[in-house]
Write a structure and sequence with these properties.
The structure is a single chain. By secondary structure, the protein is mostly helical. The protein folds into two domains: 62 residues; 40 residues. 81% of the residues lie in helices and 0% in strands. The chain contains six helices and no strands. α4 crosses α5. The longest helix has 36 residues. The protein is rod-shaped and about 100 Å long. The termini are far apart. The relative contact order is 0.06.
Length: 119
């Protein structure tokens, strides 16, 4: 009886020690859920910013014949409008999800046209 009691105590001590080295699956799941929720919040924020910019463009833009082509503002028109409002090329690229190089090219072509129109 004493041997059985001692062996049960030893087995329980070994199991307790092993439980400390086991991975916590719940903690891993919590971290994954937290990561996913952060991504959703970031995506929601980006979409809200883009919607806000587009709404401003629709409300503040020039006449519909000048600002819109088949019901939607072109990428270049939105970039130019944002640039005229004081946004940097980097900010415009983020707002419109357009590559920075493309935004810079659009802005440079507009600047060249503007310089040529004054000559």
């Amino acid at each position: 009886m004493i041997y059985a009691s001692i062996s049960l105590i030893v087995i329980s001590a070994v199991l307790i020690v092993l439980s400390f080295f086991q991975r916590d699956k719940i903690k891993e799941l919590e971290e994954e859920v937290e990561q996913l929720s952060m991504e959703v919040v970031q995506d929601k924020y980006k979409l809200e910013r883009k919607i806000k910019v587009l709404e401003e463009e629709l409300l503040v833009g020039a006449s519909p014949s000048e600002s819109f082509k088949s019901g939607q503002a072109s990428e270049e028109e939105v970039a130019i409008s944002l640039y005229q409002k004081g946004y940097t090329a980097q900010q415009i690229a983020q707002f419109t999800s357009t590559p920075l190089a493309k935004v810079q090219t659009m802005l440079q072509s507009v600047q060249k046209k503007g310089a040529n129109s004054y000559e």
